[in-house]
Amino acid sequence: MHFTSETRLDGDLLEREFTLDGVPGILWTPATASEPTPLILLGHPGGVGRMYPRLLGRARSAARSGFATATIELPWAGDRPGSPAARQVRAELIDVLDSGAPVTDDLVDRLILPLVEAAVPEWIATIDALLALPEIGGPVAHSGGAIAIATRLARIEPRVVAAGMFAGSYVPRSILAEAPQVTIPLHVLLQWDDEGNDRRMALDLFDAFGSAEKTLQANMGGHTGVPAFAGEDAGRFFERHLR
Amino acid sequence: MHFTSETRLDGDLLEREFTLDGVPGILWTPATASEPTPLILLGHPGGVGRMYPRLLGRARSAARSGFATATIELPWAGDRPGSPAARQVRAELIDVLDSGAPVTDDLVDRLILPLVEAAVPEWIATIDALLALPEIGGPVAHSGGAIAIATRLARIEPRVVAAGMFAGSYVPRSILAEAPQVTIPLHVLLQWDDEGNDRRMALDLFDAFGSAEKTLQANMGGHTGVPAFAGEDAGRFFERHLR
After folding, report:
1. Which of A19, A76, A180, B67 has a CA positioned 20 to 30 A from the CA of residue A5?
2. How many domains does chain A have?
3. Does B106 reside within a domain?
4. How far apart are CA A116 and CA A121, in angstroms?
């Protein structure tokens, strides 16, 4: 892990850009923390530059609870090298959505599974590197991003002790089949009237998780209209499980 | 409204039992309030005596936010005169549940609609009487109880400005049809693995409400196992809308 920049932001937040095996990322730590902090990995739909304002907002909010946050760019997104295969299947998706035809399970598999396979090892390597820093002590939680990535990570990475998920993306059937093996506490946000979201699949996935503590919170307001109080409720979820 | 007892409980809560046109009820007010307070009506499944410990817990919690709370006994429940018709249909329900047969829409109608018709005017009369007290200023919210009663009250009583609902009881089709006319902010709790609950109906009802702000929070833990954090989240809902 190589730090490539270090900026002290207002509100006592230290922002450091890094690269890890060629993957760019950002680490935010509360500058005034006197002991190693818990860590929340911030998922996103790809394109850290485009998502930066919202990621920073989530980082600031977590820092007020004394938590470090970090994110990395997704495969084939942002400034990372593209993938002809990923471009091709994304173009297919756009054609299907434009035509009004249903998005088939096969298309969802080809769209999401390669992303999960490529991204999850990178997030695990990021956990390795961040927990090696003296200022990061754990425990580790994951928040948001593609729910398929979040589900796989929650299933296979025991250092992730809690996950806040956002039910706003496609879920391959094989990921749904993994859900019963997820047993950590979950807080799942669902935008009820999100047109780009398959509500039935989101409810099926929530139902399938094996966790004894799982909360589904559904709100109105469309894909990007998560109300402020829902963010605060999610923040309290992390406070309960990271302290 | 006649007060029949007055008790100062620890935690500076004043508890007064009352009767209103023969309906017994309880009013809890923060004893130290210096100005007229908002009011939360506490719904319940019937049997105030049996429900008293949980009702008192909800009253204490609301009083910490500076809110008065009140409840009345449901028709044909607790110490109120019974109804042969209500006893008959309840016995039918028990037979149906024992036999494992599905609970028909007709049975739900005969079980719930007379209760809604009888109870809602009593809750409205209670609002009238409580708002006439100098220590109660409004606004008024409704919390819990049979969701069919809560839905009807939210639809027809404009003084109820917000409702916390508990999706844990039968919903007649005609009440589902009223839901689009409910437009106040809603916070709906659903116990996801509640065996006595029809989850599909609960989701349909949540979907049908006309409110621009509505939140569904689903948790694990069975009918009576609402986690403490869910109660706190509901408390914040009332704080947002009653202040």
Report:
1. A76
2. 1
3. no
4. 9
How far does Cα A59 stand from its chain's mean position?
13
Among A192, A212, A233, the residue with its CB nearest the CB of B233 is A233
CA–CA dist B171, B193 (Å, integer):
18
Q: What is the CATH number of the domain that holds A150?
A: 3.40.50.1820
Residue B105's identity, in one-letter code, is: D
**What's the pLDDT score for residue A117?**
98
Q: Looking at the domain assignment, is residue A97 inside a domain?
A: no
Please report residues of B whose CB lies closer than 8 A to that of A213.
220, 227
The phi, psi pair for A187, rounded to 5°, reads -130, 110
Note the ipTM here: 0.85
Per-residue confidence (pLDDT) for residue A10, from 0 to 100: 79
Between CA B30 and CA A228 the distance in angstroms is 29
| Ramachandran assignment for B231, one of left (phi > 0), alpha (psi -120 to 50 degrees), beta (any other) | alpha
Q: Chain B contacts of A214, Cβ < 8 Å?
A: 192, 219-220
Q: Is the pLDDT of residue B11 over 80?
A: no
The four Cα atoms A170, A173, A174, A177 give a dihedral, to 10 degrees, of: 110
**Residue B99, domain member (yes or no):** no
Structure tokens, B170: 């039968």
Domain range for B171 is: 2-81+115-242
Out of A203, A211, A215, closest to residue B217 by CB:
A215
Beta bridge partners of B42: B143
Structural domain contains residue A141:
yes
Using a 10 angstrom Cβ sphere, with 0-12 exposed, 13-18 middle and 19 or more buried, the burial of residue A30 is buried
Cα–Cα separations (whole angstroms), residue A145 to A96, A136, A163, A222, B188: 23, 22, 11, 16, 26
pLDDT at A125 (0 to 100): 98
DSSP A74: P
3-state secondary structure of A236: helix
Place of tokens 């027809």: B156
Nearest CA among B143, B105, B139 for reference residue B237: B143
Dist CA B185 CA B110 (whole Å):
29
Q: What percent of chain A has pLDDT over 90?
A: 88
